[in-house]
Amino acid sequence: MSSFTSLPGGLSAYGWGEELERAFAPHRAAGLVPARIAAVDRGQCDAVTETGPLRAGTSLVGAADPVSAPCTGDWAAVRPGGAPQVTALLPRRSVIVRSSPSRRSYGQALAANVDTVAVLASLATAPNPGRVERLIALAWESGAVPVLVLTKADAAPDPAQSAAEAERLAPGVTVITTSAATGEGLDALASVLTGTVVLLGSSGAGKSTLGNALLGAEVLATGAVRAQDGKGRHTTVRREMVPLPGGGVLIDTPGLRGIGLVDADEGLQQAFAEIEELALDCRFADCSHDREPGCAVRAAIAAGELDERRLASYRKLLRENAWATSRSDARAQREDVKKAITRSLRQTYAFRERQRRS
User: Fold this and answer.
1) Largest CB tally within 10 Å, which of 9, 127, 288, 308?
2) pLDDT digits (tens, 9 = 90+) for 258-306
3) Is 151 annotated as ligand-binding?
4) Is position 202 annotated in a ligand binding site?
5) Does 295 show up as a binding residue in the annotation?
6) Does 201 show up as a binding residue in the annotation?
7) Which fold has domain 95-252?
8) Is 45 annotated as a binding residue?
9) Where is Zn(2+) annotated to bind (predicted)?
10) Nearest-CA neighbor of 146 among 186, 109, 119?
11) 12-89: what fold?
12) Span 84-105, pLDDT tens digits
């Protein structure tokens, strides 16, 4: 019998399995215990272990790079005791990363080890196409599978038309129309949300309300939205992780105001797959899809097969992603130079000290 099968079942509800147990073996041999991080704030985290929840410090890991810092969904090695500490993170199989809200040159990890990203857009007001496209690109880039969830169908003037318009924003993505108030679409949604599920969307999109419907209980805090624009207060103030009754884990996130992309080339290619595919038939390999002869993308727009707005959105996100990625690369290079200078100075000081003593 493996060591995992003899463990208490507490972690299995959060996704622990044989593969993770094998990866954790060296940490267990060192006296550390496995845990999944449920929430992070100010150098501390709430984590779930085999024997129950605990509060642990996070200052020993990921201090240099915000993307590698502990985040909700991470599997961690915790040193137990009077003051538990996270000492290491297991390798992530996926991670949702956006550029920092301050628009500085680093990314921010929103959730790790995610299987399904539910991108929520409310039908109570007209969904913002550009925002949906950003979130879909973010989801694809993470390595998880995106699902576009249209919420509040009971408040939509024409849910079928809204759903048809939304489908054009997410080619290749499952689109499900739901209403937490009437129960519409919830069974269909539950059937495609597998493993660890993250809810992403603007404040007021109904993430917490939908999460409670999936959980079958009022676990997540909810709030009202403004009638004039459909936006709400951030009732979810930090990422939270809760097991789903039918299996899997749900991560609710605060409403995202800024959804900057960084190093998201593959995510953009998948989010705008139809443009990428059309571009293969352009006469010139470096076609900018502007005025070049033989441009298959412009031909599709002229034929009404592709929306001009969609191409404009693609170009905008490509420029933004390239800018953010270049800044991130430049920052990394500066840090490498600083580290090299620091190592050189330390070696110089050590050499001088040895000379002095001799």
Assistant:
1) 127
2) 678 988 999 999 999 999 999 999 999 999 999 899 999 999 999 999 9
3) yes
4) yes
5) yes
6) yes
7) Rossmann fold (3.40.50)
8) no
9) 282, 287, 289, 295
10) 119
11) OB fold (Dihydrolipoamide Acetyltransferase, E2P) (2.40.50)
12) 999 999 999 999 998 865 555 5
